[in-house]
Amino acid sequence: MTEPKLATAIRAVLTSWEQATTFEHRTNALACPGELSVVLGKAVEKALDGAGEDPVVVRQEVIAAPFVLLAGVFEPGELPETPEWFTPVPDAGGTQMGRAAAIATHGFLGLETVSYGSENSGELFVSLTAIPGDGKFAHKSQGGLRGHTDAVSFPFKGDFDSSNSRIAPSPDFVTLVGLRNPKGVPTTVMVLHEALAKLSPDDVRELKQGQFSFGSQATFLEGMQDILGAVHTAIDEPVLKDVAFGTIVRFSHSNVFPTDPGGAAQSAADNFEKACLQVAIPVAIEPGDVLLVSNRLCLHGRREVGGDIGGHSRWLLRTYALDTSELDDHRRHLGDWPPHVLYP
Ligand SMILES: [Fe+2]
Fold first, then answer.
1. pLDDT tens for each residue of 292-311
2. Which of 22, 126, 161, 266 is least surrounded by Cβ atoms within 10 Å, i.e. has the fewest?
3. How far apart are CA 182 and CA 78, in angstroms?
4. Is the pTM of this model over 0.85?
């Protein structure tokens, strides 16, 4: 069991960091996430080493896991009322420690904390809360979410989009940070190999063919219009891909369809959707927890949130992690953007 040991190491590092810094220092440090990630990541490595654990083994185990819940790694401390929109994340003691927890975890794993310019203006952290009103985002934020991978129209790492080679890969991990969850609303995770075990070899074969179209998730739509002049869609790509360490996935129940509806591709996608529902595991992210979800080996969703808005209602932070060691600079925005903002 790697999780408790890693959680203990991260908690120790964050406690020392909080004690050694002022609020203002932490604000400034969080404005340079790349540097902070290296510092805190190395400290986590040292803490594991000091506890007699091999950091290399722990790192490999986490990177290979479909999901990892790191429980109680930070103290949520002072928080304002739960925000009613994705951005900005208020700069408060609790959100500082939550953001630092994600950044420290990614640093230890050798991953960069990244965002996409086309989603929420490239903000590195966004709040996931119930949004008031009647609009599309309000409706989505209060209901449940079926299984999906994030940034689903973007290519797998190592691949290029057929229409625009600048488009960066989707993230390796979706990282969720718990600030408030008074009703214990679970996030759901669907482990890919468990879902695939429920499919026929024919269905798996269909899902590996380049015959699916990938639309964009709602949070990217506006930014894509601004940056690309159109909403990005990937056409005739596979849902599953075999790589050196197994099979990886990109899928969304609401944004991925066979390019030609009907036939064997359609029934494979339908059966995959059913299999994901059958294997879904609920994980309630409590305040102080960090949930790392592999965006290649796992799908994620959420049970119904309900209509509690603001106040002390449910509040998670979300960010992404990607191994960018082989990522070409032209797949970042650069220029006036912070270095961690990927294209588009
Ligand atoms: Fe998601």
1. 999 999 999 999 999 999 99
2. 22
3. 16
4. yes
